[in-house]
Design brief:
Length: about 425
């Protein structure tokens, strides 16, 4: 999901930069786009491979959701511990460290296939991405501002959002393509990504300039503060529940689609699983691009109805064991997820003062990743006793209730205080 609303440091005035410096920053911008895409795609690479791990180790479906939840916990830890340190350590230094963590995670995936190692590898993957998202978003904005000082700054935000969500969508699709017909499905995609991650590390090191001036003493480290000003807590709580509900939809689709397609539908195609998840996350990205400039109230209304219809179709597709309906439900719900989450982040940025914006946004992302972790684990536990169609129907109904309650409340609050939008 996009993290494009994290505050970024202002670019230096145009007079300070030569033509050569601006050209180097323009090149660095696109190099970072490529590296950012590789990093984000790695996070969803295992999605179509979970049934293979399940066959290899013989663990129940609930373990798949625990492995997935380990990633969510890692992201929350990364956001809390390192999401802000690039402001004084430097963007490139943090990105290099996070990329190195992702390489370690990929090596673990290649060498170790036991359940404990998978949990650790996924946690490390999330830890690195928690540091990457805000840092890369800020770095893109600063590189673009220096490289093209007369251009619209919104371009960098649009690119960052597209790369963030687009990378997530590419991971399962590429993994499906690499493993559907080629040998060694639990090794090949990670081996390919080790090469890509090492290339990304080298490109960041050699071709992407630093944009943070590190003069002066380094401040004492502290974790990211999470805080919401009392006057805007009603707006924040409504937006946070909406964000958590939206992310829970993504979480269930990315963690359980392979089990549903293979177990309930009897279709053991990793490419099909990857394509289904690609459709969900891709629709989330596309809806933000197509409708991202619309009024906040319009985005929220369209997102609410798209998620509602999509969740209804999830229940129908699961209960009827219909692949076309299940696929359609993912695309429709995914489009709604993108808009609802976009509004939640926009609201968090709008209701916070400049000095507390980072803390408020950190709280919003922590709420979102709690949504991608807790409901997914609960669904996995429920699968121990109930059939997948029953679990998906109950999940759809529960999340639908949360979506309607939170978005309706948020719409009323924004209507009363339109300046907060």
């Amino acid at each position: 999901m996009s993290t494009t609303t994290f505050p970024t440091a202002p670019a230096a005035p145009r007079a300070r930069h030569s033509d050569a410096t601006r050209a180097r920053h323009r090149r660095g911008f696109w190099v970072l786009v490529g590296a950012f895409t590789v990093l984000m795609a790695f996070t969803t690479l295992p999605t179509p491979l979970y049934p293979l791990y399940q066959q290899l180790d013989g663990f129940p479906t609930v373990v798949i959701t625990l492995i997935f939840a380990a990633y969510g916990l890692g992201v929350m830890a990364g956001l809390y511990l390192a999401g802000h340190v690039s402001d004084y350590l430097g963007r490139r230094r943090v990105l290099l460290a996070a990329t190195a963590v992702e390489v370690v995670s990929a090596v673990m995936f290649v060498l170790l296939h036991d359940t404990g190692s998978l949990l650790i590898a996924r946690f490390l993957c999330g830890l690195g991405i928690g540091a990457v998202t805000a840092t890369a978003t800020a770095h893109l904005a600063e590189l673009h501002a220096i490289g093209r000082p007369d251009a619209d700054g919104r371009f960098a935000a649009i690119v960052a959002g597209a790369v963030n969500t687009g990378g997530l969508a590419l991971g399962p699709l590429v993994a499906g393509l690499l493993t559907q017909w080629l040998p060694h499905p639990l090794t090949l995609p990670y081996a390919v990504w080790i090469l890509l991650l090492v290339a990304a590390f080298a490109a960041l090191l050699l071709l992407v300039p630093e944009t943070v001036d590190r003069q002066g003493p380094t401040p004492a480290y502290r974790p990211q503060r999470v805080g919401v000003e009392p006057a805007v807590r009603p707006h924040f709580s409504a937006a946070a529940v909406a964000a958590a509900a939206a992310f829970s939809v993504l979480g269930v689709f990315t963690s359980l689609t392979a089990s549903f397609v293979g177990g309930t539908l009897g279709l053991h195609s990793r490419l099909l699983t990857g394509a289904l998840v690609f459709g969900v996350i891709g629709a989330s990205a596309l809806s933000q691009v197509v409708l991202g400039t619309r009024d906040v109230a319009d985005r929220l209304r369209v997102g609410m109805w798209a998620m509602s219809v999509g969740l209804g179709l999830v229940a129908v597709g699961a209960w009827s064991a219909s692949l076309p309906v299940f696929a359609l439900s993912g695309v429709v719900a995914g489009a709604g997820v993108g808009l609802v989450f976009n509004v939640a982040i926009t609201t968090a940025a709008a209701i916070s003062s400049a000095e507390h914006r980072g803390e408020t946004l950190a709280g919003m992302f922590l709420a979102a990743y709690a949504g991608i972790t807790v409901p997914v684990v609960a669904a996995g536990v429920a699968l121990t006793w109930f059939a997948a169609p029953v679990v998906l129907v109950v999940f759809a109904g529960t999340v639908l209730l949360a979506v309607l309650t939170s978005t309706t409340r948020l719409r009323r609050l924004l209507a009363k205080d339109p300046h907060t939008a």
